[in-house]
Amino acid sequence: GVTALLLLKTGDTVVGTGGGIVALCKGSNYKVMKKIQVQGAVTSLTSRGQGHQFFIGTSNCQIYRVNYTSFKEELIAACHHEAVHDVVFPVGISDLFVTCSKNDIRVWYTPEHRELLRIIVPSVTCHAIEVMRDGKSIISAWNDGKIRAFVGDTGQPLYVIDHAHSLGVTAITATSDCKRIISGGGEGQVRIWEIGKKTQKLGEILKEHVSAVSCIKITKNDRECVTASLDRTCIIWDIVRFTRKQMILANTLFKCVCYHPEEHQIITSGTDRKIGYWEVFDGSAVREVEGSASGSINGMDITADGAYFVTGGDDHLVKLWDYNQGTVTHVGVGHSGSITRLKICPGNKYIVSVSADGAVLLWTYP
């Protein structure tokens, strides 16, 4: 049907439809003179100045500019149109970051706030992403149980690991030598994959969690990792001998976990709104601070020197914390949906936060 109308000064009408067609109709008999096709249903049309240009907004979160004379569309802004599930910076690079959502992964160029690359996989949802340390590939976790890897520069498919997890892949990370991937699934298993030049094979399965793995972090020396799960436990694993080192229990569904850069402590958070500090050595609780007044905390990230960390969650607020004091130093108000993940960029210039309403927000640090 017709979803938007724009009356021009000449008496002609621009008509937008639910099928993404924008047509120029003659004022006297509504005969179609020119038409173009855009992505998504047209939600709004608006003219600029004397009507020499007009803008099109669509349900796929795209904004187009059209010159009235040539009647050709030009994409000027785009974003995710479904919940954004993860955001990640390549190691040591602050000018690029990658986000993932339903059907797609997008690479963004930070200084110009524009999309560089879009990788589309129809009708599946991407839960988590990671950029390999060598920058050559983007690995991603999908709800159809597959791990998909794409070439970093072009977005071409590199390889797919089928049936990686039975209830969808929910978390993913990689070792710094780019030879192993650690994935977590909806059934609670943690799997370690050996990645060769041409082959990807299952190395080890760690079965302790009984519910979905929500977050995986790995130490700098690739010998240890921590997994957070919705079964109210965080487990620290030895990934050389493939054994459990420590188990942390709390009455919360863990959503996120971070190593302190010195790797002697971890911080966790989740649905009980509290931020827990834990000793890596024996899994003992160091302290607990109230993280949010309402709703769960879904994402956290820590600075490279370990002095500050950020959290975000269902209260729509981005909070910057002093690690040692355990106090909030800055609060960012701007999201209109639950924050799903956030990251501090390398070099501490920005904080990027993503939310369930499809927004990607860039904050000046701090």
TrEMBL record:
Superkingdom of origin organism: Eukaryota
Compartment(s) where it occurs, according to its Swiss-Prot or TrEMBL record: Cell projection, Cilium, Flagellum; Cytoplasm
**Keyword list, A-Z:** Cell projection, Cilium, Cytoplasm, Flagellum, Repeat, WD repeat
Q: What SMART domains does the annotation carry?
A: WD40
Q: Per its database record, what is this protein's job? A: Microtubule inner protein (MIP) part of the dynein-decorated doublet microtubules (DMTs) in cilia axoneme. Important for proper ciliary and flagellar beating. May act in cooperation with CFAP45 and axonemal dynein subunit DNAH11. May play a role in cell growth and/or survival.
Quaternary data: Microtubule inner protein component of sperm flagellar doublet microtubules. Interacts with BRCA2. Interacts with the CCT chaperonin complex. Interacts with HSP70. Interacts with AK8. Interacts with CFAP45. Interacts with DNAI1. Interacts with IQDC.
- Could you tell me what this protein is called? Cilia- and flagella-associated protein 52
- This protein's species is Pterocles gutturalis
